[in-house]
């Protein structure tokens, strides 16, 4: 028994503590246990949030094509891997899953600021895409019509009256001009 080990630590925490203490040859300056707040990021403020997945900041982007090749690999950078891990941001730092089973659901009144989707320029992609635009957008859940900025902008569906996929900042009857679509 070592009285310098805080109460409530599990076997592995105690063993790690004792190994570190042995390696440094004696006393450890502070044995104060971390609080949940110090070891958690419930709002993904230190990571990159896509849907409910909070990827590590080192990924640069959360989800999308090539996520498994980014710094941190699939476990830190791919939304499906992060969500499947079941690691809660309420008790852990990224990569983790924010509370709730799914992102907030729109009640069908439009989404003029793309709160329920993913923004890239004027395009508001479906949240299920994991990323908006870029290489491989056509093979993400939802396909090109929901995940590729060019297709979304060409469709010219306003977010003022519609949910993602839609275009931000246009009136419903105002067409979006894209190459080859000029009057």
Task: Please characterize this protein's 3D structure.
- This protein has 183 residues and is an alpha+beta fold.
- It has five helices and six strands, in the order αββααβββααβ.
- The chain has helices spanning 11-24, 73-77, 79-85, 143-147, 149-155, and strands at residues 48-50, 53-55, 96-97, 117-120, 123-126, 166-167.
- Strand 1 and strand 2 (53-55) form a beta hairpin.
- The radius of gyration is 22 Å and the shape is elongated.
- The termini are far apart.
- Mean pLDDT is 76; it is low at 28-37, 101-105 and 172-176.
Count the DSSP helices. 5
Name the poorly predicted regions.
Answer: 28-37, 101-105, 172-176
Number of strands: 6
Strand content: 5-15%
Describe the structure concisely.
The chain has helices at 11-24, 73-77, 79-85, 143-147, 149-155, and strands at 48-50, 53-55, 96-97, 117-120, 123-126, 166-167. It has 183 residues and is α+β, with helices and mostly antiparallel strands.
């Amino acid at each position: 028994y070592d009285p310098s080990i805080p109460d409530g630590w599990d076997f592995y925490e105690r063993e790690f503590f004792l190994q570190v203490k042995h390696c440094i040859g004696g006393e450890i300056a502070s044995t104060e246990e971390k609080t949940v707040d110090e070891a958690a990021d419930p709002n993904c403020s230190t990571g990159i949030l896509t849907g409910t997945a909070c990827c590590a900041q080192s990924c640069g982007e959360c989800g999308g094509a090539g996520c498994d090749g980014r710094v941190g690999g699939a476990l830190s950078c791919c939304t499906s891997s992060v969500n499947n891990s079941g690691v809660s941001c309420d008790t852990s730092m990224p990569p983790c899953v924010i509370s709730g089973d799914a992102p907030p659901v729109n009640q069908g009144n439009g989404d003029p600021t793309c709160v329920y989707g993913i923004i890239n320029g004027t395009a508001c992609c479906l949240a299920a895409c994991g990323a908006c635009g870029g290489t491989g957008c056509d093979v993400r859940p939802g396909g090109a019509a929901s995940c590729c900025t060019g297709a979304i902008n060409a469709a010219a569906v306003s977010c003022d009256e519609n949910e993602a996929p839609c275009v931000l900042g246009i009136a419903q009857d105002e067409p979006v001009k894209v190459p080859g679509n000029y009057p």
